[in-house]
Amino acid sequence: MKKLLTLFVVTMMLGVASINCVNAQDEESAATTDTTAVEQAAPAAEEVAEDAIEGTSAHQAIKQKFIEGGVGFMSAVILCLILGLAICVERILFLNLSSTNTKKLLAKIEAALNEQGVEAAKEVCRNSRGPVASIFYQGLDRYDAGLDMVEKAVISYGGVQTGLLEKNLSWIALFIALAPMLGFLGTVIGMVQAFDSIKVAGDISPALVAGGISVALITTMAGLIVAMILQVFYNYFVSKIDSIVNDMEDASITLTDMLYKYNLKNK
Length: 267
Description:
Helix content is 91%, strand content 0%.
């Protein structure tokens, strides 16, 4: 009996010891896991911090280059870009509003002309937007004076509408030419500063001329970038205006033929 009790006690003690050992191993494993997680999270946090530093450094680099390029010249180049883009936005809105479906408009005018006469056709033009409708209205308004007057009115008012379409394009062209010129002027001033530094020091050293050359390169680069951006918009506007003018000319010929047939029909 005593042997059984002794065996039972020994067995219980071994069981408790094994449980404690298992718990210790679990705690050690958990601690190791936490440490591993922290070690794995640390590089991720470092990468995020590096990305933030890189973003900040990029912003600071642009700001620094702006200052190195010379606040005066760089501000003038940026001003050319801002004013040029403002005019570009205005021209985009105006040209898009000036674009009309000339075939649909001619069909409406022809239907109104055949059914109700010239006044109905003029009403259709008044209710339509765009330079084509305005030209048609001027031509129809002079129908009583004869087809020759209609043709002259269409040609004359077509020139007026073309001028409105090309409005402010000269300013964009000015900024396209002015931005690189300002950049080149900064280049010349930067090189003069570099040679002045060499003259004062009496020695040719990369450290002496680096500042002047940096100013020269930065201002030139900024001016060329501004000119390229505005040049893209300028070419788009020229192409858009040419398309609208071609539509006006074709539609004007069609309107003249339409009025000629209407005149023969009512004789």
